Structure formats: C-alpha cells, structure tokens
Automatic annotation (TrEMBL):
Membership in a protein family: Belongs to the peptidase S33 family.
Domain AB hydrolase-1 stretches: 74-226
GO MF annotation: an example: hydrolase activity
InterPro entries: AB_hydrolase_1, AB_hydrolase_fold, Pept_S33_TAP-like_C, Serine_prot/Carboxylest_S33
Residues making up the signal peptide according to the UniProt record: 1-19
Ranges for domain Peptidase S33 tripeptidyl aminopeptidase-like C-terminal: 390-430
Species of origin: Anthostomella pinea
Keywords annotated in UniProt: Hydrolase, Signal
Name of the protein in question: Uu.00g065690.m01.CDS01
PANTHER family xrefs: 2-SUCCINYL-6-HYDROXY-2,4-CYCLOHEXADIENE-1-CARBOXYLATE SYNTHASE (PTHR43248), AB HYDROLASE-1 DOMAIN-CONTAINING PROTEIN (PTHR43248:SF30)
Length: 431
C-alpha cells in the first residue's frame, strides 16, 4: 500500500536543543491503520544551521493502535547503510504479524530515511558508470588502477548529480537529523531500535543527545572504533563461521531440503567457486539490465554474505548453490541486482557507498596495502577469501571525492538511560 503524502515546512531550530519552532501538520492517514508520509526541509550542513542550503527528509509513521495507552515514538533503522526505513514501515503495514502486537499498540513506528536515502533527498550517481564490472580484489597494478579510476568516475558522477549533499551524508549528520525531527514532532523523549548499521547511527545519536531518549535497543553492533584491517578481518571471520553453520545445517536440520542425503555442501561451494574461477558462470535468467548475465567467483563471495543473514532464507541459498553447480547462477545474480534508474531503489546502493566513505578513514590506498588485507583474509578465512561487506566498502572508498567527516573513534556515551545491546552468535555481517 502506498502511503498518502503530505508536506509540512520544517524550520530548523537555532540549536538542536531548542524546542521551537514546531510544526503542526494535519494528519492525513492513508488508511484506518494510520500510516502517513511526511516531508520537511532541514539544513544541509549542521555546522551552518541557518545557511540557505537545505535537504529534504522523508519519513513514514505508523500510529499506535491503542492511542489511550501510547508510550511514544519508536524510531527504527534496519541497517544498511543505505537501507530505506520507510519501506520497512510500509512492510509492517502490509504484514503486521512480523512485529509484536504490543509494539504496534503502544508505539508510533517512525521510519525516517537517513539523508541520501529513500524518501529523503537521495544520493544519485551515473548508472552506467556504477554498473561497470571491476574487481574489488585486485592482484595486479593494472587491476588496482582500474578499481581506483572506477571509484573516481562514480564519485565524480555522484557529485555532479547529488551536488553538495555528497559531502554531508555522514552518520553524525544523520544523527542530528533524527534529533531535529524528534524536536519537530513535539519534543517528547524518543525510543530507538537500531539493527546493524542502525546500531552505529543510534549509538552516535546517544552520544550526542544522551538525555533525548527513553529507551534504546541496538542489535548487531557495528564497530566504529577499530582500524579498517581489524574491521575487515573480524567481519570476514564471522562470515566464514556462519557459512560453516550453513553447511552443517544442510544435513542436520529438518528445514533443509537435503537433510539426510549426505550432501557435502562445502564441496558444492568449493566446486562453484572453482568453476567461476575458470570462467564466469552463466545466469540465463538475467539480461544485464536487472542483473548480470553471468557471475564471477568474487561476486559469488560478496553476494552470499548477505543471503546468509536470515536462516529462513537458507533453503533458497542452498538451491542457488546447487543451481550454480549445474551451470546456472541466475539466483545468485538476482540477489545482487544492477542499478536500474529508480532514485528510491538505487539509493540503497548509492547511499550504501557514500555514507560509509564519510564514516571511516581509508588507510589502505595502494595495491600492496590492499593485497596485504587480501592475504590476511585468505589466511584466516580460506573459504571466503577475506570477502566481506566491510572489505568491499573499504576498496570502494579509495579515491572517493568526499571528505571523511565522521572518522573512527571510541563512543563516549555519558547518559543515565541504559542501552540494551545484543548480538547473534552467527551473524555473517555484525557478530
């Protein structure tokens, strides 16, 4: 169901601690469920809040079903970076069973898309430049030079299409946006649920505004205090550990379609990579428009990580590997679609690059330094060869044109409200 949009002009307060001016929008729910969409203008640069440059922030709110016993606003962020939170709220409306009824009864669910993403002013880049195939694991100087030139070309196109916003999509700016929206919505203490990248966003929010929230739950903690080599190694290690759990699941779980068949799924996995090392595996269900018509071993490794996040998706991953072993990698290719020219959809990938490139320092900037990380990864994670979302982001940021506004540092939260932090034992991205 598409939410009904309405617009309200939001004036930024002189400081984020101020409570005025406020807006008083007329609620226009699109259904009896009380979902509505809101847009407003906020400063591009929070260091110059009275400047003339502004961006639009968009959110979707699902009002509490039991208004008499409403607790407050619950801001959510499912991760990314680049994830469209507005789409998650729309999914909750369509499938309310995925969220406990007590939450839906007592809280207004707020899906505020971070700057650069979704309903907010999105990062936009050239489609053809972005879809060019390059190796993120270069072995030669020529491959490394091609990667850097690719990054620079994409970055240049993003600056041309996104203009000054490309310099201000860091997580600190997004945290300040959340505080401004909290104030604009009445100033009551908010509640926060952050998953994966959402844990970084909201933990940095808590550091900035320790007295602005009632409760906070962070699940799947993203480290924003370690050097890039450590981050890459930690993530690739848990990716490999989760992959091994997936192999064991295939023979032991009743949910596995091959339970009891003595299938050596690790051997299947290695066979698929060996085939793809020789030549990309065809994906006949793809046409190089929505997804690539073949996949390389490197692409398989980077794509599978995200597919292992939810165990409910493991039967599909198993089927995809068996199909690929038979010479058809369509399922794998479809799991990593190409950029198609829809600003809302594409902001997941464009924002997913631009945001972390401003959040983390980039120490490895030469072929030797990048190969050293690959060597370390292969030594500790021979199955996945050091591949991970973090490693991919790190190599994507070499040559990026925007400054690092939010470099790594230890979080110094000083508030009195306890923050609940949880982590899964086997999360291929954030354990």
């Amino acid at each position: 169901m598409a939410p009904t949009p309405f617009t309200a002009a939001l004036l930024a307060a002189a400081t984020l601690g101020a409570t005025a001016p406020l807006f008083q929008p007329t609620h226009s729910p699109c259904s009896q469920k009380g979902e509505l969409q809101l847009h407003g203008n906020f400063p591009l640069d929070w260091d110059d809040p009275h400047g003339h440059e502004t961006i639009e922030l968009g959110l979707v709110r699902l009002e509490a079903a039991d208004k008499a016993n409403r607790i407050g606003n619950l801001f959510i962020n499912p991760g990314g970076p680049g994830g469209q939170v507005s789409g998650v709220v729309a999914t909750i409306v369509q499938q309310p069973g995925i969220v406990d009824s007590e939450i839906l009864n007592r809280f207004d669910i707020i899906g505020l898309d971070p700057r650069g993403v979704g309903l907010s002013t999105p990062v936009q880049c050239d489609i053809d430049a972005s879809n060019k195939r390059v190796s993120r694991m270069p072995k030669t100087q020529a491959q490394f030079d091609e990667l850097v030139q690719y990054n620079k070309a994409v970055g240049k196109s993003c600056r041309e299409k996104t203009e000054r916003l490309i310099d201000f999509v860091d997580t600190i700016s997004a945290a300040k946006d959340h505080e401004a929206v909290r104030i604009a919505m009445g100033g009551e203490k908010a509640n926060f649920l952050g998953l994966s990248y959402g844990s970084q966003l909201f933990s940095q929010y808590a550091e900035l505004y320790p007295d602005s929230f009632r409760a906070m739950l962070l699940d799947g903690m993203v480290q924003h205090s370690q050097d890039e080599a450590s981050n890459a190694l930690i993530e690739s290690t848990i990716y490999e550990a989760t992959l091994k759990q997936f192999f064991a699941w295939s023979n032991s779980s009743a949910d596995s379609p091959v339970q009891g068949q003595a299938l050596d799924l690790e051997a299947v996995f290695k066979s698929v990579l060996a085939q793809a090392d020789e030549a990309p595996i065809p994906a006949p269900g793809c046409d190089d428009v929505q997804c690539r018509s073949d996949v390389t071993a490197e692409e398989i490794l980077f794509t599978l990580q995200g597919t292992l996040t939810m165990t409910s998706g493991w039967p599909g991953v198993l089927e995809a590997l068996l199909e690929a072993q038979g010479g058809n990698a369509t399922f794998i290719s479809q799991a990593q679609p190409l950029i198609v020219g829809d600003a809302y959809t594409d902001s997941l990938l464009f924002g997913g690059r631009a945001i972390p490139c401003q959040d983390f320092s980039h120490a490895a900037t030469t072929l030797a330094e990048v190969v050293a990380k690959q060597t370390q990864g292969t030594a500790f994670t021979p199955l996945t060869r050091g591949a991970s979302q973090t490693y991919g982001i790190q190599t994507s940021c070499i040559g990026w044109p925007a400054p690092v506004n939010n470099p790594v540092k230890k979080n110094t939260y000083t508030g009195e409200t306890p923050i609940l932090m949880v982590n899964a034992v086997y999360d291929p991205e954030t354990s």
